[in-house]
Amino acid sequence: MAKILGAFFYYPPKSEQINSLLEGLLQVDQLTNWPNQSLITEQCQILKKQIDHPEIEYQFSLLFEGQGSMIAPPWGSVYLDQDKLLMGESQERYRAFLQQQGLRLNTGMNEPEDQFGLMLMAYALLLEKHQFQAAKQLLTEHLLTWAPAYLDSLKQNQISPFYQALAIVAENYLPML
Fold first, then answer.
1. Which domain covers residue 153, as residue numbers?
2. Could you give phi then psi for residue 75, rounded to 5 degrees?
C-alpha cells in the first residue's frame, strides 16, 4: 500500500506510472483493516469521483510542482529545517541514509529525495528488500517527523478534493506502519 500511496503523491494522475495502480487506490478501503473503515470508504468514493476531474492534472501541478506559492510543499526540509528551504540539512541526512541503505532513487526528475511520495516508495522498497530495520528508521527518523504537518496542510487545500481525500487516507495509513 505504501507504494500505491507514494506513487499518487509523486506522479501526475494521468501518468503511465499511475495507470497500473489506479484500481488499487480506488479500492484501498478493502486492502487492510482500517481503524475507521467508514472514513476510508468515504474517501475512496471521493477519489473515484475526482480522478476524472477535467482539471486533475492542473491541481496536481499546483500542489506538487509549485506554480506560484505552494499551500502544502511535499518536501520534508520545508517543515524540518530552520530556514524552511528545499535541500536543507534534513534532506542531506536523508540522502546519506538512502546511500547507506544502497538505495538510489532514479525517477528521471531532478528533485530532492525527501518528497513525501518518494519517501513512501523508498519505504516500500526497503520492505521488499527485507530491510525491516532500515524501513523503520526511515519512518521514525525521516518521514514521521514532518508528515503530519504536511498531510494536515494538504487536507486543508481548497484546490483539489482528490488530494484532500488522498491526504486523509495517508494520514490514517501512517499510524498503521
1. 2-176
2. -110, 135
